[in-house]
Batch of 3 targets.
Target 1
Amino acid sequence: MNTFTGKVWVLGDDIDTDIIIPTDYLALPTVEDMKQYGFSPLRPELAGQIGEGDIIVAGKNFGCGSSREQAPEIIKALKVSCVIAKSYARIFFRNSINNGLLLIENDQIQDQVKEGDQLTVTMGKSIEHKGKVYPIHPLPDNLMDILSAGGLVKAMQKRNGISK
């Protein structure tokens, strides 16, 4: 079972794809070039503060807006270990899985954490915060296989014996 701990960054409800990565930066050549502008309309300093393994905790409807794949790619490029939100826009959810970004749906933890807190996540089982355990529903095996491989393309390469 995969367990990890990360520092929390708290965001609110309805964080749309224009907040995650504004359209002004989509013309940049790579996601690596774009990532410094992640969340800039909301908090211009945030992308530079997020550290590897950190966890974003948000409210409802995370990833609403356009279906641009760069939104989950930016979060993954910032090396966020997962996003925990009350709910997700469906296309953002699937784009995230396809790009290897773990999303966890939980409607309790947002009201308990403060920015800078630590969370421990046991994939498919629970979130722990200050000694309290919040159960989570596991994702189906096929989605976990995609996440474990690092995204849909890598999962299909592995399945078809053409891994690089």
Target 2
Amino acid sequence: MTERLLLDEHYSPAIAAGLRQRGFDVVAVLDLPALRTCPDDEVFRQAQAMGRRVVTENVSDFLKLLSQSYERDTPVARLLLVSAKSHPRGRAHVGTLVDALAAWLDDGRPRADCEWL
């Protein structure tokens, strides 16, 4: 089964649109008015409820949320962590990030709860 992604608020909806054009189930926080101003813990909970993996550069906050979920034995949202150095944001890099995420989604290997792009 293909992963369903939720792009954190710092990612352009154009990335989600580009991935949807390739047949992937991806939405951006900025596409969802109810999530636009939510704190990270709410994004984490909503991603879990929607069955989506959070794609984020906010490594420290989301790893903390994942760790807290493990400690409390509560449902987790899976994470795909992205380095801003390897995959910078901005209009000039939308296509590159779409390509990288599409390759990750296409590779078909089993997935851990937390991975790096």
Target 3
Amino acid sequence: MTFTLSLRRPFVADHFHDLPGFQEDRHGHNWEVEAAVELDGEADEPAFAGSLDAWVAAVDYRLLNDLPTLAGRNPTAEVLAEQAFYFLQGAALKPSWVKVREKANYWALCRAPDPAGGGR
């Protein structure tokens, strides 16, 4: 039997925007990531928690612009949701979606493609 589990983690990070059309000085946020994955059983829960915690550890209290995985990209909530989604996939998990909150009223969600042909 499979089930969907979601976990949420807070993190703190600075960033700035310095690409044409979107420029903003360095500033920080109290971010939040939430992810849902399809699991084959309860035994897979620790792997999910550990993988999400590892992703958070890589971004927590960092200047996001300095991360090699974000080189050349504005570190927005959309980009971070995509990065976390791929990180979980790389950990042999099956994420359904990843959501990153940058501000109280600003979330970005990255989801698995629809098997019928939809995109992220």
